[in-house]
Amino acid sequence: MKCNNCNEKAVFSNPDLCKDHFNKYFETNVLETINKFGLINENDKMIVAVSGGKDSLSLLYVLNKRYDVEALAVDEGIDGYREHTLRDMADFCERLGIKYKIVSFKDEIGYKLDELLKFKKFTPCAVCGINRRYLLNKYSKGYDIIATGHNMDDECQSITMNLLRNNLDVLARLGPKTGVSGRDGFTQRVKPFYFLKEREIMAYSLLNNITSNFNECKYVRDSYRAKIRDILNELEFKHPGTKRKIIGNFLSILPKLKDRFIEEEQLYCVNCGMPSSNDICSRCNVMGQVEAEAK
Ligand code: SF4
Predict the structure, then answer these.
(1) In what order do the strands lie in the sheet with 100-104?
(2) What would the pLDDT profile of 271-281 be if each residue is shown by its tens digit?
């Protein structure tokens, strides 16, 4: 199979491209997304949320070619998994000379995720997600933006999950630029991989020796997200272009969703001071239940 653009052998199919043209296609896609949605301004102080997986390391690699970047990792405390990805992340950052910081659930909230799950019947991804978001927000203060490795597949899953759960206020906060800029307590989040598929990031990661570790967290297989992921993958296989249409349709209604579901007045959690939609944020609520049970 030949590259669509030259006589070299294609290393990627659909589009059929050789290594050089695939890298160009990939990096152009990122740059176009950044420019189209105004994700990064020239003087922005940026930090990249990294887990040590293919998405976040590939993002760090691409952004590092053009911008000053630093990395912020959260160690949730998932034995047998996170210690390996964090080691990959540290090796990668040291190889590229990128400054990084690791913050952990254990140090910050007193429990590893594995320990938290022994208390209550929390859904792992829910309790992980709220604490992870809290720490990313807390440690990205002082930066203008935090870039995340969310890709088209992730976003399609989030859109579908929130629609099915009727979480329209959460749905209104998705998109390539999330959070509400200009409000105290938020760091604007940007997703430069918004229009790239997971398989494209996997290929980019392998072709550029970024990582070949594609292991997943042990908790993902039982998650609602994994069920939605499988359904969407099947739909995409049978009806190619499904994911792109979901993203396109979502972006066309996003301005109306923001108008309708994002409140003008921002509340702050009376406990931790983070932005919240109630007096007590969902993280403090959950952690309060943990503390009550621990007594
Ligand atoms: Fe956390 Fe769930 Fe992701 Fe595992 S799969 S790191 S539990 S959000």
Answers:
(1) 100-104, 70-75, 46-50, 145-147, 188-190, 177-178
(2) 888 888 788 99
